[in-house]
Amino acid sequence: MDRKFQKSQSMVPFVQYTQDELIRIAEALDKQLGPEFISKRKGPGYNSIQYLEGWKAINLANNIFGPNGWCTELKNFQVDYIDERGGSISMGLSAIVRVSLKDGTFHEDIGYGSIDNCRTKSAAFDKCKKEAVTDGMKRALRQFGNALGNCLYDKDFLSKITKVKQPPKNFDEENLMRVSVKKEKPDLNIASTNKLGASKDTATIKSSAITKRVGPTRSSQAASDDSFMFSDDWPEELSQKDDFAEKPIPDSEPEHDISNDNVDNNKTLDQVPWKITLQSLLYQQM
Question: How far apart are alpha carbons 224 and 216 in whole angstroms?
Answer without folding.
Answer: 6
